[in-house]
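ok trying again, last paste got cut off:
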Amino acid sequence: MSFENPALLVTLLVVPLAATGYWLLQRRPPRFAVRYTNLEVLAAVAGRRRAWRRHVPAALMLASLAALCVAFARPTMTVKSPNERASVVLVVDTSGSMRATDVKPTRLAAAKNAMRSFLERAPKSLRVGVVSFSDEAQVVVSPTIDRTRLQQGIDVLGPGFGTALGDALARAVELARSAAGTNGDGGRAGGRLKDEKGRSLASILLLSDGAQTRGLLSPGQGAERAQSAGIQVFTIALGTDGGTILAGPPGAEQVIPVPPDRETLSAIAEYTGAESFDAESASALQKVYAGLGSRVGREDRPREVTAAFVAAGALLLAGAAGFGLLGAPRLP
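nice, full thing came through this time. structure:
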């Protein structure tokens, strides 16, 4: 938390001064003699009261005073807000290994459901694109805020053959540059996708379940293009080490193990300054995408919360008045 007028925090000195004054008043000797000397009868008439209750109104008053003093300094908090210039490219593996059923109902079906979860959690103003890759990378949906188009693009995703991971990353970088409407800093080709405050204008979410088998570019070369553009690549390794598929001609199918290539995906994320995730179940994958949907495409912005402190001070003051009335002595 920061303050627009931090010098006014000096008003908080009023709180300990008021507390000291209240303490001194409580220790003040009685000014009047007791006329009725039968103290036991007086105690019975007055009833039993817990000693701490009589201090509650004063404590609430002091808390209210503190909240109002903080409000004078105009406090601000940093909150996550949508970056209307940002875009995200969802890159999804549609190779044959995505037919594996170790993630129910299949890896690809679980991925499609998780991508829908991402769209639900992401800001409505965030432009989202979809790139699929098997033996080659294809743009399924160019970055857009049209959630219907994105849903339709996700629906048509189907398994293919091969894994051209490096080419997919390069294609996603090109798509992100196109969505930003610039070649980078100062319009130079190959510049980093940053705004005037140095904030990233694009992110890539890469989901894959296997090692590269096709393509012109290696995963490292694809990651280098993303890093040069200033784009973070969040990676998700989908599947278990025991995942398998059946492949081969009818009647002569063979069981092929298809473990995820966690090492490569983790290296890509680390190289681009992002995070890597491991999803061995549909629920774990849903959590990853939902969490990323709440994070990417947002930026830290200061927000003044003076009104909240004023409201808190008013509520505490009302509480002090209420406790004071409830705790006031009454005749039997």
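cool. The chain has two domains: 2-78+303-327, 84-296. The first strand starts at residue 2 and ends at 3.
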